[in-house]
Amino acid sequence: MEQKRIQPLARDAMAYVLAGGRGSRLKELTDRRAKPAVYFGGKARIIDFALSNALNSGIRRIGVATQYKAHSLIRHLQRGWNFFRPERNESFDILPASQRVSETQWYEGTADAVYQNIDIIEDHGVEYMVILAGDHIYKMDYELMLQQHVDSGAQVTIGCLEVPRMEATGFGVMHVDEKDQIIAFVEKPADPPGIPGQPDLALASMGIYVFHTKFLMDLLRRDAADPTSSRDFGKDIIPYIVQHGKAVAHRFASSCVRSDFEREAYWRDVGTIDAYWQANIDLTDIAPELDIYDSTWPIWTFAEIKPPAKFVHDDENRRGSAISSLVSGDCIISGSTLHRSLLFTGVRANSFSRLEGAVVLPDVRIGRHANLKNVVIDRGVIIPEGLVVGEDPEADARRFRRSSGGICLITQPMIDKLEQ
């Protein structure tokens, strides 16, 4: 007689978040911070979504591997994720690349970022490892993926998105059989394999993997001893298991967390300026595709102690107002007009300025009579009086970082050049 599970599998799992990447397609937004540390949604950072998913799923042991310009990320983790208690069998390890294996070697790849911390992982004595990318926006219950992993007898279970087949050319794509067992893993194929019974769709890797811990540790030691390996999950580890063992796909739609307002499974890689702007601005919709107001699956983050937002002046053409916008704490909208915009903490928008389609990071100062449309403004930027952005594409491209989608990224060095 099969023994029933007494507790959720997540209680015997560790989430290991790979958060070392720069995210170079975000251009100047990642000049001073890693992509997982980039701000999102008015209060959070991108990494908070993977961490919140782990916490909400019941996982109480978490490790975060950092590398590129990690200070702001580490500071955020220390401030916002310092509530784990060892006496409750909880742990939160921040694991910078610290040349622990070799005095000359940083993390050489995603697999190496786990391998170099094997001793720390094994000390926790967990049965399962959930390997996560730290730079995507989504809500997911990892417990359901763990259950599938155990029930299927897989050696690795890989989180996958169903995407239109020819849109999968930029992903690692799973070629599966009728039971979702992976028979081939193809990195960025020109002609992606379709899904059995759904030939117009392909299964794209989310960069989420579930392993039994001992199996993964053995595999990483074997890989580290291979001088030809690039030390990467997608290029080395996963193809090896597909060829020599049992790899199974887990479809995101079956474990995506949705509130009553969310119609479809939501997942975004906000890796470009256009995608980043769009995902933030989408939150201003009446019924956004991503519900960040769902209290049953909260997105945890560093909650700053700040006063409420404030709107002042009620004169003609000088009225503090916001339409279809998100305005965070400690913002003062002083005779400024916002439309379909998202303001992070501590923004000051001064009289007669107008913002439309603006994603404004913390502590920005917007001067009087500024007119800004379809912009992303980096933290701490001081926008001079009368600046106009979003009306003359050629002038915008000369002064700022203008994306292919017409979004202007504005940083303080760009503003400083205007005044020279």
What does this 3D model show about the protein?
- Involved in the biosynthesis of ADP-glucose, a building block required for the elongation reactions to produce glycogen. Catalyzes the reaction between ATP and alpha-D-glucose 1-phosphate (G1P) to produce pyrophosphate and ADP-Glc.
- Alpha-D-glucose 1-phosphate binds at residues 107, 172, 187-188, 205.
- β4 (61-66), α2 (71-80) and β5 (91-96) form a beta-alpha-beta unit.
- The termini are far apart.
- This protein has helices at residues 47-57, 71-80, 110-115, 118-124, 142-152, 213-224, 233-244, 273-282, 393-399, 412-418, and strands at 13-19, 39-40, 44-45, 61-66, 91-96, 128-133, 137-138, 156-164, 172-176, 182-187, 201-212, 247-251, 267-268, 310-312, 314-315, 318-319, 321-323, 326-327, 332-334, 337-339, 342-343, 348-349, 354-360, 365-366, 371-377, 382-383, 388-389, 401-402, 408-410.
- It is globular.
- Helix content is 22%, strand content 28%.
- The strands form six sheets. Strands 1, 4, 5, 6, 8, 9, 10, 11 and 12 form a nine-stranded mixed sheet that branches. Strands 17, 18, 20, 21, 23, 25, 27, 28 and 29 form a nine-stranded mixed sheet that branches. A five-stranded parallel sheet has the order 14-19-22-24-26, with no helix packed on it.
- The chain is an alpha/beta fold and 420 residues long.
- It contains ten helices and 29 strands.
